[in-house]
Amino acid sequence: MITEIVANGQVRIDSFLADGDERTLADDVLDGLTKPFKELPPKHFYDARGSELFDRICELPEYYPTRAERAILERHAADIVAASRAAELLELGSGYATKTRVLLDAMATAGTLDRYLPFDVAESVVRRPAEDLVAEYPGLRVHGVIGDFERHLDCVPPASGPRTVAFLGGTIGNFPPGSRRRFLRGIASGLRPADRLLLGTDLVKDPEVIRRAYDDAAGITAEFNRNVLHVLNRELGADFDPDGFEHVALFDTEREWIEMRLRAVRTATVTIPDVGLEVQFAAGEEVRTEISAKFTRPRLEGDYAAAGLRMTDWWTDPDGLFALSLAAPR
Ligand code: AVJ
């Protein structure tokens, strides 16, 4: 671990990422592209370009989750803070902390705000808002954690007051059901009785509305999807022709999740020197790049129960598109 203290001791940043980290990309590629049905995990979308494309997705007319979640936060931040009594906010996948300010404001108004702990893989994404926020909120302590929340959850410093762990945006939907419960169990095991999980979940709705959110008319999501191939080219020396792959988004009505895939438009042979792999693609062959599960309240309650949590509160936007819920350890 590398620790750094800045802004007169108000900001501390711990980094758990080291040399091994391209390794997880290499391992994921080696695993995923040698499976009978090829797949790549969605976390590798988010290099600088991917993060920028994702920000543009959030502004798209078709992509409702960001707006719906923000509407819930704006309307219910005070309720969330009253229910959780949080003195500190640990945010997993904090990004640029735009939604976070709504929560921090409500905590400041309630007079409980003490500490913010942004947790993200991207170093700049932890550092920049950390420094801005101490300037904006007098007395706020910021303890940033740079790491992979699938591996470094245990490295987060202990709570010094009632803690709310926020996992927003619906990213929990990226986990298939079994891993989802395992991940929630990992969060639950770090919660003390007064701590809460604040979770954002996209809800089941008209499949066409969901599908369009992942296949926008301007083609931004398609570019975002193909970006993972640019990442493999740059990081692993691969020779993918991203234009040789088309974007596919389909809603699995049985499992109620959206899938994104990349479909080879023609036969291709791709070499990936850094993992010593030569991969064949048949024309029309698909690589699954993301699942994004959609929830109902009973489904989420089932997941919470399986993870040792119980739902204490549930809020949706007026159109019922998205939900925020609070869960407590049982
Ligand atoms: C960041 C995982 C919440 O699943 O909706 C957006 C990613 N993929 N468009 C989602 C995403 C395609 C997004 N999450």
Question: Could you walk me through the main structural features you see in this protein, from its secondary elements to its overall organization?
Answer:
The protein is an alpha/beta fold. The chain contains nine helices and 14 strands. Helix content is 35%, strand content 27%. It binds N,N,N-trimethyl-histidine. Residues 57, 65, 169-171, 173-174, 214, 221, 290, 292 line the site of N,N,N-trimethyl-histidine (AVJ).
Helix/strand layout:
Elements: E1 2-6, E2 11-15, H1 21-32, H2 48-59, H3 65-84, E3 88-92, H4 100-110, E4 115-120, H5 123-136, E5 141-146, E6 163-167, H6 177-189, E7 196-202, H7 207-213, H8 220-236, E8 245-252, E9 257-264, E10 268-272, E11 277-281, E12 286-293, H9 297-306, E13 309-316, E14 322-329
Parallel strand pairs: 2-5, 3-4, 3-6, 4-5, 6-7
Antiparallel strand pairs: 1-2, 7-14, 8-9, 9-12, 10-11, 13-14
Helix pairs in contact: 2-8, 3-4
N,N,N-trimethyl-histidine binds next to strand 12.
